[in-house]
User: Fold these one by one.
Assistant:
Number 1:
Amino acid sequence: MEMKNKEFIFEPNQYPLDPGTRLIEASAGTGKTFSLAHLVLRLITEREISISEMLIISFTKATSSEIQSKISERIVLALQELEQETHEQSKDLVDQVLQEWIKLNIKSNSIRVRWTTLLLKALEEIDHADITTIHGFCSKTIRREAIELGSHMNPDLITEADNKQLIKEIVHEYWKEQMLGLPELQLKGLQAAGLSFESLVNTVLKIDNDPCLKFNIDQDKINNSQPLSEQFDNWVNDFWESFILNWRNECLELEEALIQKAISWKEMGISNIKPFSTKPRRDRVNELNEWLQGLESKLNSDKSIATIPSYYLIRKNDLLKNYFHPRSISHIEDVNDLEITSLVQPKLQKSIAEVYDSPAELAWQHAISSSLSILKQRKAKIGLVSYSDQIKALDPENTELSREASKIVIKRLRERYKVVMVDEFQDTDPVQWRILNETFSRSSRHFVLMIGDPKQSIYRFRGGDLQTYLTAKNQVTRIDSLRTNYRSTPNLMNSLNILMKPGLKHSGLGVPQLASFMKKETYLLPKNDAPIEIINFKVQSIPNKTSKRELPTMSQVEESIPSLVTNSIIQLIQDSDTNVKPDDICVLVNRHDQAEKVRRNLIKAKIPSRLVNQGDVLQSQASYVLQIFLDCLAKPTDSSKIKLLACSPLLQWNIDKIKDCSQNGELDLLIIKCFDLSEKLQNRGIASCLSELLESKNLANLSKQGQLLGDIQQCTEIVQEAIHIHGLSTKGAAKWLRQQRQLIIDPTPETRRPNSDITEDAINIITIHSSKGLQYKIVICPYLWQSPPAPKGPLWKFKESKSWYFSLSTGWGITRQFIKSSVREAIEESERLAYVALTRAQQKLIVIWSLADKQHNNPLKPLIFGNKIRGETQDDFTNEKIAAWLNNQQNNFKIYEIEAPVTNKISWAPPKIKLPLKLGPIPKRLLDKSWGRYSYSNWISTIRHQNESHWNPTLLEEGKDTEQLNLTQDIFPERLNEIVPLLDQYSNSPLASFPRGPIAGDCLHRILEKVNFETSLTELSSESIIKSELSRFGIDLKFINKVQEGLDRVLSIPLGGVLGNMKLNQLSRKQRINELQFDLSLARKGDPIKSIDLYKVFLHNPDNRFGRNYPELLKELDISSKGILSGSIDLVFTDKEDPSDGRWWVADWKSNWIGKSFKNEEQSECGPIYYSDKSMENQMIIHHYPLQAHLYLVALHRYLNWRLQDYDPSKHLGGYIYFFIRGIPSKQELKGKRLNKNIPGLLIERAPVERILELDKLINRSI
């Protein structure tokens, strides 16, 4: 259906498929994804364009996946229809569209067969089709066209979280080297101007994430090659001298001009003109002169200080800041909507603003530009790009890409794709549109289709730009509109058409009238119920000093909103005439804190709720509660921690019980309980221990606190997984959780997003931004009466010059225009957000209106009162005026008034399900507590020594600090702790000063897991891995070279002994397996495996290493296990190219530190000389590594028995190698030495086959 010129109503089967650039405008709920999928179906069949020749782009991965799913479903449905000879008319419009398409096109059986073939091929190829995000498209293009774009443009994609971490590292380096090099008072002055580590990180991140704008600096004053300290004093000095000169010449004239300005404002009827006055009581010029004289006197008398005041003293002066600064005048003009005037004393006022703001502005610019420059170099060096870098790389205006190379890339893209579809086009930024426009829209051979809704352009903070959409709209050859709504009922749709009739006036967008597709449905609400309710919420005005009543503040109105929402919900779900369940209702909010307040109020009313897409569960109250619990298990004797647990939501002791617990013995009982749970944690897990602590009463009380119980359970699962993966002890788990709680990850990983749905039947609470694309039966919008928050600098977008503008001197000059532009854009986006909010409902919409101070730019007022209404009191915004504007003659709207204060009416109780009560089955046997998931670390953690303190195996396993030495001396004979140095001369290990402990050990493990053994560790890819892992574990990057050298020794050393000259870097990928994980069943049907059983196994092969004295130490362990034994072998390899011909070995990396310690770590000795066979054997015994090695060999034995044909353990099972990384010598140090002897740092042992087979039998026993 044609409307005007190039505008049409969309017809799915008549839409032209010939080349051209077109736009489909889809209002909320009009089925744009269906339309897109149907057009893909037509393109595949009617134009015979394969799915591989289509590029389909959407805004997020989630929407891309949804589109792919919808296309697949559409193809399957079409295939089903094509198989049928006759078609019954369907009442479903979707089927009608498909049947009409078949009727129009299937004129012969040959067409039917041909199209079936094309669709089947498309279905096969769809998983590999380019249905992706704009970043995904750019990433693929960069990799495909790496040569034309430059080899440096074939890097790895860095995640948003890692990119932020890299920026933090760079800013930290800048702060340390540049900011801390400034004099203290200069630094304090900059900090007073808002320059901090956190603000600098956020500013650099904001600039780096936006590919559309460049950041420019004042190159006349800033030299990035010079340190900040060498420039800052000069800036302050220059601006100070200019200020002093102008002040002395014009200060009296300025004060007189300000008085005259105050008089003119009073004549206009403006009451509040503070800080100015028509008759000032203070002589501010004299006050500032006295300050200047005092400074001059002090500076002249103290020759040790500079001849100008510090920047901190300048920033501290209140007269410069709040009276003489030009923004003070601008503020009054803005508040009272006055015409912008020029400065009253321009030369002096400008110099005041400069001396106060410009030194900080220049320092900010130096910091930002330096950080961005280093960031660019760093990413290029290690081969990483961020999402925005991908966009910039393909930008036609990218000056780093030659015009010729750009033409080649565009030519290849045009050859690869014939069809380009862009979903959610309103979220496109200028650079993304430049790429698509230059590449495809300017081609006469391509079908280019954009689908979007400008009214839902709400992602300005992510770079989405409405103007880009409007520019593209003017360039297209055809515009079609979707005018059927599939979301809302006819009654609600009619009411929405009335409500939206004025359009979005600030954005300049009309809202088309839509028809509801729904004919028959099950209504939750009575048929005569108004589909839209408008609550006129009146909060009493506050009288001021002159008895004139003022409007309440926004916060005063907000106080009662949660109760108002709660009461509305209770009325809905308790009404006997409705079938409304909590899950049918959604509350839309502007901010996360509003969501939290509404949720808390619903908890008070005992109404279940869930925060949809809200935050990180490890940043929630639940993670703090779990932290308290784990801290108590890690240190059960710490009474302060135990008392904190007692008063936490877990136990909920009141103040009186806390006071008395030390005297009546309850505190001691709780300490004993925590001791007991601490011992059980490793075998039974956190959830079991937590359940035992809570017992039924506390668990019931906790369940009443809304989502807290669900969040605690989710946090417990996350920490439990970390315990299993990293082999954490109780202390390690508490420390890990603390670190994760302090680590803010953006975006939040899926596993850490709260899924605390206490019940599926819960009120949904979600921000408007997150609600886009969602729908709910009943929607409540309680905050649309609020104006958008005022934009904050000091970073402003200057779209005309496609650049960022940095200014602290806001409110006057050019920055004033930036602020006005930002305010206008915020107001425009707020009404688009309101449109999104108002169109989420399927059956009923409840809107709350209220009048508050400084909220006149809210998006709701024009919709319910009209564009022309003026007024500032409650009497100007009545129910009658709402009804008159909406022409509420057919009762489409229910309009009523509620006055504050509002409190919760009653608590809600869900309807009781009437079922007969009966006892459940009674368990016939006790729970087998020996069954569980175990590991080597679990087993060795069971050792005890005389004073019954706990041995932490995780700390012992990967490092050997002083405290560990003392501990092991108590556990093991003194002879095992002695260091037996070699007689040969070796130098210190490059890793001698590398940090000790489990974190450092885990870091080295991860590096060896990820690097390519066959290439040098100094190559860019390996160096990138090393740097990334050092950063991840918080280890100083100064160790990069030492790690490269130390690990190169591991990979390049001849293994010696039975392996002769073999080296790890000679192993092909076919010969090795990194990180072989295993799960072995323990005693499937028999009794638990005990320590004495292991002792008996190790008595076999007594002549092998660890066959004589070690078995006795196994008796010290307290093992009783059945279930699953889990582990991960660092490296498995075969010593021959042919896997069936060689022997297979397990290798394990150990970072144990053996040597002589000194207070100065740099002087400590640790190297091959200390890693003799005897020293390494002692370490093996102390840490029970022989047990670990044998468990690994059993796992390898089973793996080979499963995977290797004709496997024979005596032929194929090689043995184990323990690499003590810090003890391996260099190539030069090995020259001339015989390799048939053991090499320092390497402990190699052939597999004691008989012992391994006996251990395998023990683990697998079934009797």
Number 2:
Amino acid sequence: MKNLEYLQLIKTYGILTIFLLLLASCQKEEQTLFALLSPSKSGVTFQNTITETDSLNILDYLYFYNGGGVAMGDINNDGLPDLYFSSNQEKNKLYLNKGNLQFEDITSLAGVEGNSTWNTGTIMVDVNGDGWLDIYVLAVVGINSFEGHNELFINNKDNTFSEESKAYGLDFQCYGTSAAFLDYDLDGDMDLYILNHAVHTEESFGRAQIRNIRNEKTGDKFLRNDGNTFTDVSEEAGIFGGINGYGLGISVADFNQDGYPDIYVGNDFHEDDYFYLNNGDGTFTESLRKYFGHTSRFSMGNDVADINNDGWPDLLTLDMLPEDDSVIKSSEGDDMYQTLKMRTQQYGYHYQYTRNMLFVSQPEAPYLETALLSNVAATDWSWSALFGDYDQDGKQDLFISNGIPKRPNNLDFIRYISNEEIHNKLNNSRLVDQKALELMPSGKVSNYFFKGENALQFKDVSKDWGAGLPSISGASAVGDLDNDGDLDIVSNNSNEPASIYINNTNGKNSYLKLQFQYQDKNPQGFGTKAIAYNNGILQYKELNTTRGFQASSQPIIHFGFGTEKTIDSLKIIWPNKTQLVLKNVAVNQLLTIKPENTVPYSYQRKERKKLFSKVEGNLGIHYTHKEDNHTDFNYQKLIPYEVSDRGPAVAIGDMNRDGKEDIFLGGARNQKAEVYLQKENGFVLEKFPAIENDSIYEDVSAGYFGYEDKDDFVLPIVRGGNAVSPSIKVFENKTFTYFEGEYLNLPLDNSLVNTSTVKMSFLENHRNLHFFIGNHSVPLDFGNIPSSRINETNFPKELEKIGMVTDALWDDFNGDGKTDLIVIGEWMPPRFYELKNNTWEESFPLKEKLNGLWQTMIPFDMDGDGDQDYLLGNWGLNSKFKASSTFPMKMYYADFDDNGSTETVVAIEKNGKYYPLLGLDDLAGQMVFLRKKFNTYKDFAGKTMEEIFGDKLNKATIFEVHTLASGFLRNNKGSFTFVSFANELQISPIKAFVDFDFNGDGKTEVLAGGNYFGVIPFHGRYDSFPGALISSEKEIILGSSLGLDFTQKSVRHLKIISIKNKPYLLVVNNNDKAEVYEINE
């Protein structure tokens, strides 16, 4: 009996347990922001089925896997957005929204199946201005026996359409990708940009200039709306149309806020993206290089939104950098160093790197590029990007669709087809084709959701928001399918049903939806701007429906406002440059807005005098630093960055003893140093034979000390360059001095290494001048640390090899009235030294692990508490490097292959394990034994450092970095804690500081500059930091708003020079011209 009761009890509790588990599962599911709507519930059964055949597959057509398109819009004006899907190989589908998330397939009735062999992107737009949405479908025609043409389905207002592309002049037979409608000339009707794509041919791989030779199949087209027909004005509008235009993405926005729509085009492969700024006269000026330091290499879809609430549109471009280490290491990535150098310097292309790019607008200045900093750089094979406030908290979130049936960039596949014998058979044997196809692994991956946060940050919330299982999602559109106020998403998937993401925000946060009834020929109001103001926060939106990739979204504007019930005001700026303002607007509603009671709107901005302005003629300083052709990576392929590019050296001082400050500017290797003497109204280049004779040296750092009681001075010049040619003597440090009426050039020390800095000071109770000579590394042996030293005092042996020194500072850090020494460097912490009994002893005022890649420092009272803090320039956080105190970045230094030469291997942590940062080709290029150990890239991919190197790691010296953030050491009465700068100061390495009262308020500020280019393409150039004026911990102004032009330049020195007591800012750049700015207090 007891046994039966026991069994019954177990059964009861078992059922209860299962019920609770199911309940917990349901509750967990309810917490997901999005839920996927099944085809059985929605009635949307479309899938873009791609069928590979012997005669048609990825080997025959480059873009076989790019997928179809999707358009969202209300085709019957019933208030519910409908869906249209274009299919590559099968018939297109139109689904009518019947409400309650039920859709009806009306394709046959509507007559919109299409007749082209291969369809791509699709757009919904009111082409004829009758108030009813029409459908435009792109096709690929003229390759692989593809037939047909672009089709225009004109809405008959009864759920049927008529194909009238020929009548409108839009029946093009090109290699179509997508299209964007815009009113470029502000005449009230919809003009058209058609985005086409190239395929690989011998002609498509020429120099960049071939983009100027128009090709009818591959070249983009721009069509002006002339009423009942469209006229091709591509040439006169300034639109490129070459055979190298691999167009995949297009965005329209008023990027420069002048009232005219501009265009950004993303091009795949080697062709540059295009940034067309509208001149307002029927023409565009392509301006990519002026505003973008680099772009995505395989530029795919893109989207525009104001992510930082400054009222200016920002831009995201997609690429195909994976997040998973196994996929990264088995996929083709960036160019080799020499290849990129050839492509940019000889073939005329811009800098491109394989990752997503997030471009943050700087008014009337180049963009900041922050994708790595913002955590959105790596989302695998990404097609469509769609910004939107999906959780309605007032910040822009991000959806990215991705996936590909097979990865044609797989390195084992590439190696297979690159074999000459196999390559010859590809055209003759379909068995070889099949083997090649089988080598390509699946690229089915989950889509991404990112939640927008403060300070340019995005958080990956893909799992929490319901991204779903791995898929092959391409073209995507956004809108409110169920009219509940939040944004839903639809993706056209390959070989599986379309994904419909239903947003469950519902009433949790407030929203405001806007739709427009504008002028007759642009009834949806394309190009209309809406600016919402609430509690001092601005949200900016602009209506353009071509977004993401091969798609168009619902023609509405959507805002989120958290828990607010009303907002302060809403400004609508119409395309005809008029505006209306609504006050105290209630949220949680759809507003239909017409251009009534408008007033003129002016895009003219008040001219404000900038703090800095470039000096015409540069005060006579015509110096340009010119690096030689030496490349460190040709000798040590695995070093994390170059050492040979640390110049130029700069020193300010009275070199002719006339009471005026002069300028010494060191040369690169085989470049003469220059001395500019100050005259009445500027500077004049003066020849000093003792200096000019030293042109074989690479001048890295210099200083100046002039004696007050006599005409003598010393100017120490230290050398680097990392190139041992013609002999080791090129590293000889010297002192240029004026002694008893004679200029002399004397030896300073005999280190003969890469010296990084020289600092001078008179110490208490010492008669002679003290030099600290900070050394970085032994030439061509990165990781081998040479000794640094101080003359005239005892620097103990155990302190000599203090690290890869980059900068030093004589200062009283402990407040005892005596001069101390602070030294910073790479792969080391800031180090503090006190002089006691004529011997230097290390002090330890830091209470945290603080190894960094420190570049420069300056004393400054950052927190205004009266004591001296120290500002430190580090590598920054916008990098593929990754470091923390818990999981430091590591560099292993050893002779791994026992050939008498050392190697360095940088490793970062992922999921608690350490992986080499670089792939097999890079590592095996230096260590051949790895080719024998790993026969395929698949074997190597995903392997940890221990699995790759085994016991060889035991003999390695390990260097660590605990933080990459620039920041400051806060002085806490003799001890120091590190505080990171704001993210705006983490975009690039900070290489230079200078302190001065720049704004004339009686207080000292610090100006910061930086950027760095001495890395392999895997990292990409750090080129978008515009400089910053730092007044305090919370008061930082970026240089782009102050009149400074630091972007795309590597600033190495910032100096204040004075002429007739008027201060100027001298900016000295690596491998570029020096520049002088007037300071407009």
Number 3:
Amino acid sequence: MNSYGPPLHLAAVSGHLEKFQIEIKNPANNLGEPPPHSTAINGHLGKSQVEKTNDNYSKPPLHLAADSGQYSVSKYTSIKTLTLNVSGLKSYGRIDQVRNLLIKHKIDVAVLTETEISHDMAKTFNIDGYKVFCPPHFTTGPRGKEAGVITLVAKDVAIYAIERPDLNNKVDTIPTVWIQLKNIKAGLNCIIGGVYRRNRKSTDEVKKEFLQLQQQLLGAAQSNKTVLVLGDINIDHNNPEHKLAKEAKDLLAIVEAANMRHLPNKVPTWKSHGFHRICKCSSRVCGCQRHQLTSCIDNAYVSLEAKASLRVLDETMTDHYPLLINLQTNRVVKTKLKSIWFRDIAQMSALDFENALGLQDWSSIYESNDPNDIHRTILSNVNSSLDKLAPFKEIKIRKDKPKLSLRKDTLAAMEARNNARKSGNKDLYKLLRNKVTKMVKRDEIQGVLNRLGKNPGPKNSWKEAKAYLGSARGDALPETTTNEDPQKTAEHQNEYFISKILKLAESTTSSNTGPLPTSTDTSTSTGTTKVKMQPWPSDFKGSPENNHGETPLHSAAISGHLEKSQMENMKPENNHGQTPLHSAATSGTFEFNFVNASKITKIISNLKNTKALGVDNIATEVWKKGKITLSGPIARLCNVSMATGIVPDLFKKAIVHPVYKGHGKDPRDPASYRPVAILPALSKILENVVRDSLLSWFKQKNFLPESQYGFRPDKSVAMALTVAQTDWINAKARNELVGIMAFDLSSAFDTLDHSLLLRKLESANIKGIPLKWFQSYLSDRSQRVLWNSIISKYLPLNKGVPQGSILGPILFLVMIHDMPKCLTRNTESTSSKVVGYADDTTVYVKAKNPEHLRQELQALGQIMVDYCKENGLVLNGQKTQLLTSARKEIEININDDIVKSNTTISLLGLEYDKNFSTAPYLRKLAREANTRAALIRRLSFGMPNCLLRPFANGLLMGKILAAAPAAIPIRIDPNDKPYLAGILDEIDKAIRATARTITRTKLTDKVRSEVTLLKAGLKSLTEAVSVTMATLVWKARKDMDTLGFIFEKKPSIRDNRSKYSEKLCQPVPGHPELTSNKMAQIWNNLQLNNAKSIADVRASALEWYRTNFQN
């Protein structure tokens, strides 16, 4: 809501607030206001009786009220600042030491001096949860190429940080960083300066340095803001015998002139590494005792009126000790404790919910033919049942704390502990306090296990690991970005997302926006389309094919029906081995496959559980618990929608959650956030039904090209890359040159033109009511942004396919289904092929000489540019990659951008070199595996073994096996010569080291690695990859996928068990880097043709590994 006061507060200030009683039958009205919110805004709040409404908003009752400012406590707080001389950030392990120090003390602003890194390196320096500010780059200074000081600001504070270059001098005599923390609404307005003054011997240099400090301090003081200056000044104000004692007095005079004061400190901040004599003996060699030298050369200065405290931390990593300064500010910070309302769906019994749904009136659903009316009735009945079994409850949460579900015995023990404290029984209180601590730790571990069990992937494992280590700071959205109004921030972010799409769409103008070449007569009563035949092209002179490789009759055939009388003596075949007349005879128009309750039940069961709610505020878990009763009404909704060509209005409204991209991006910049759209779970059920019908039709008509591997059943990234790599190395074995181009489409899904997409759907014979349904699906869509708890207004979406939808990826494949045909060419000197995975398109060319290769690559690049312009796609020439096997560098022009051939190319997460091996990717994988193994070891110091296993499988094995069949050429035969053995051994060592971490064993214990792996629940690299590779090749041969056709069969041989053993030939023998050769070996050695299921394949792979590699 636009008002920021909570409803009860508004009621209090607008009139007398008396006791009230509220009876809630339905949580929210059409505007998303709970009943007490509405009455509170209108004035006095009294007894409220609220009638039922069918249209709910995405937030629970009073959620908006709680989120709009009703926090528990307001208080004054301080900015935690720290300064430390790091003696070079390049030192081994220094960055990790700094990170741990900042996380441990929850530092807001850190000034690091003596960094010994360049300005370029300082700009790219990154510590999780912090933003880096660097000094200006002045080349006229004594050490202009080095950034002597950098300032790190926590990301939740960095949104208020502004650089102040006006306070720096034109000559970098002393490297300084000046920032201002400004948020007037929160009462935060101060300037922080980081200083590093090197220890110089020249008197003239010292004078220049103090002149610079004087100018900067006076300039900061004139801003009338609280000023804090800290860093390594190399001056000791406590030692009157210091060599710069006079300069120290002069500096204090400058500080006083700037209305500032020195924060006193008697504890040394520097201690020498070695021992030195302090006696005044004339002889260099004497027996006097030697001591470590100490000094207070790190200092802090603050404004006179500011309240600040300083202490030296006894946690040194260099010869300097950190200084921690608490600068008290006037900003009022609301605690994170908030009230929210939610339904406890997990505690609701499925049987009770089914019974409650059975008592509702469903008769109107089967009497109505309006999808919107049916949808409203379903929502009303579901919400009514939920109000009885899972009413909204108010809870207090802290957003900065990880979610923790406590068991009932833990809650009972906590209550007993509190009672003991109130009674004054100290012994009993201590006993119960220790007991509660252990029980909370138990529940915390169980909560992590439950979350990892539901989502065991690497993404969720990283999230849990960061939360456990306390390094997830800054992940939450800030309160505001470029302005100080949360509501305006939400509106601005939504406008940015929409405007970005419109700007990209405007950057390309499609010339293919006219009507389809066929004229149609549509009958609304039957929903069928009669297509009139088009005349022969005027330039047709008997040539069998047009520019797309189609005969004229084939073009006519796929545009509509051909009469049988026209199907005489026509022989030219299309790419699928069918004559045009055959295609015409078997063609027809697309029709939806209507569904029954059993089909809907299966779809609901396969939905992914997610806590993100759409505009209907109903979680996926609700539909699953009531699927037996709800499957019939939902089937009716789907069938009526498909029969009428109308998509319910609420299905076309999305709530967008901005997700911070990280990697040092400015949290105040709207471009630093990625939109994640949430649609109602019920809409995904309808989209699943339509998708199944659509894919069945495309498979029947061979509409989608075989070279497209994205979002299709039984196809994967590994299949796409394996097929392409086999073709590349096969060409190289024939002494042909190969050139590979990887194109990048900017926001491809978001910029699709709806009119062009509908035309391409019509070209697939999707007409009449089905085409009307897709037009309804794409039109009148809108989105709003949820920024923390603030919701923006709806803005229309006129471009692209819906993000987060089931049909979106399939519709994108329809849009680019003719791209491979345009890019596939065969001439006497060259040939080209395409491999696509959704919007990632890779074209590779085979040629006999470098010049022919360059010409063909340039021609295909221009074809791709023209295709994108005609289809409203945005091709990013700057991100286009090029790799060739030619010795000389080749360069081509893409969209006025020069693209030069590189030594490596990145495709779908893998990296290939000029020999088309995955060695570059494997080297990076080895480093990443060692990093993750070290992280798991770090986790092991405070985590039980039961938690380490899922972390190891998610973080380490998940990364290694992500594309293992296409990337890791393991040894299949123990006698084979190993390929890239050193790199693969590094990865295997990381796995075995993690197994020792989990089992708490050491190398000196001399325990066999097989035993350690078995106890840890992990597999060795060869075992894990062989199982994955065997599964992939078995599925490919079973489904006769494209991958299956790269293998040639050997004659079947009857073995002693009276079974036929089908053998596969290696596609390109003699190339150990080719993973398809390994797949053929896997098939032959494991005799996978006899496997009946994936379980049989895995069992065979495990038995084969133990026989050949463990014995």
